[in-house]
Design brief:
The chain is α/β, with parallel strands linked by helices. It has one domain: TIM Barrel, CATH 3.20.20. The protein has 13 helices and 15 strands. The strands form 4 sheets. The chain has an 8-stranded parallel sheet. The protein has a 3-stranded antiparallel sheet with strand order 7-8-13. The protein is globular, with a radius of gyration of 19 Å. The structure holds flavin mononucleotide. The site of flavin mononucleotide (FMN) has 27 residues, from strand 8, strand 13 and helix 12.
């Protein structure tokens, strides 16, 4: 008997290809609010626990992930669905992205937390604007979780868009400490959200922010809480080597490629023609980040490129590459690991697979 979330996802899967023919503003409206209904149904469910075969286990920084795939940041922003993810058979769990102050997210043209799917292209756009309950509330929630073995918990954080300079960094580090006290297993710093202003993305500005985190957090860590930094899948190849050098020198533990893309002109041409009108409306009205299949090649390419650099200049610490962007199948995972990724995260692909396989989505991948 399908659960409520499975039923919503299946009906939506059937309706989606037709829904994108609605006037674009209406389609965006429907999906932006419909997403919230689906996510709350998902969070309230208690699916049957799925077995994860031993061979999928991966160990990073001494943490045992029972599989190499988990949700990407932004899916369970406030620490929802922890037990759901465990029962479904995910390799671990990532909460956030959170900011210092609670945020309600973006609204424009009467649409709150704008989101649009492009089902035929296996892609989506979002301009959510980091809605979240704030570091303190989410850290408190994570601290209360009944922990599962071999199922590490991560937390994603970012500097608050409404703060700037040193104050923003102080708040970020305070948030990192709250998560450390909540005994999360790893942290991910989001350096790449296209939907809010959060400081300059020049190499110089990124270096300054990372230096601050290194001095105020990494060097003061009493226990080995790994910290990775997530960059955009739009990251220029020329920036990969300097970024890795900075991360390794400053004592970070990994990198994630990556976040959504704003390379609209390139992605538009790859979209199914039926979905280009919705894409044009969305990108011209909100901008936002593109996710899913259009990122598959660039995320893999960045992982391979970064891995080659790290092989030539091995860091002195244990350093891992995480791949996010367009991952949707067992083959994508195999390619990721061959290219040098230690772990994969998924977002758009998760919802696509959930529509087909429901709560057994991870189990089907492992089959
Ligand atoms: C609706 C939505 C919200 C997102 N929110 C966040 C976020 O809060 N923090 C973050 O680091 N990434 C966020 N992302 C980006 C995803 O974590 C992921 O990096 C991106 O979607 C590429 O992966 P995918 O192709 O599997 O979707 C969001 C993506 C989507 C679609």
């Amino acid at each position: 008997m399908p659960t409520t979330a499975e039923t919503i996802a299946r009906l939506d899967h059937i309706a989606r290809p037709f829904m994108v023919h609605l006037p674009p503003q209406m389609a965006t409206h429907v999906y932006s609010s419909g997403r919230n209904v689906f996510l709350s149904a998902l969070a309230s469910e208690k699916p049957a626990p799925q077995h994860v075969p031993e061979e999928h286990r991966r160990t990073l920084w001494g943490l045992h992930f029972r599989a190499g795939l988990l949700n990407a940041a932004g899916m369970f922003k406030n620490g929802e669905s922890y037990d759901v993810a465990f029962r479904q058979g995910a390799g671990g769990y990532l909460a956030g992205t959170t900011t210092a102050h609670p945020r309600t997210g973006n609204t424009r043209n009467g649409i709150t937390k704008p989101f649009a799917p492009y089902p035929r292209s296996r892609a989506a756009s979002n301009w959510l604007g980091l809605p979240n309950d704030g570091h303190a509330a989410v850290a408190k929630r994570l601290a209360a979780f009944e922990r599962h073995e071999d199922f590490p918990i991560g937390a994603s954080l970012m500097t608050a868009p409404e703060s700037s300079g040193k104050a923003a960094l102080e708040e970020l580090v305070k948030g990192m400490r709250l998560y450390a006290e909540a005994r999360v297993d790893f942290l991910e710093i989001n350096e790449s959200c296209p939907n809010v202003a959060h400081g300059s993305s020049s190499l110089e500005a990124i270096t300054e922010r990372l230096e601050y985190i290194s001095i105020e957090f990494l060097r003061k860590r009493s226990d080995a809480l790994p910290v990775v930094v997530k960059f955009s899948t739009d990251t220029a190849k020329a920036d990969v080597e300097p970024l890795l050098r900075i991360l390794c020198t400053l004592g970070f533990d990994g990198v994630n490629f990556g976040n959504t893309s704003i390379n609209y002109a390139v992605h538009r041409t790859a979209l199914h023609s039926d979905e280009q009108a919705l894409f044009d409306y969305f990108t011209q009205t909100f901008g936002g980040g593109v996710s899913g299949e259009p990122l598959r090649a660039s995320s893999l390419d960045l992982v391979r490129f970064a891995n080659d650099i790290l092989r030539q200049n091995p860091p002195s610490q244990e350093f891992h590459i995480i791949r996010t962007g367009g991952v949707a199948s067992q083959l994508d995972m195999e390619e990721s690991f061959s290219a040098g990724a230690s772990l994969c995260q998924w977002y758009t692909g998760y919802f696509e697979r959930f529509a087909e396989d429901g709560h057994r989505l991870y189990a089907r991948l492992w089959a």
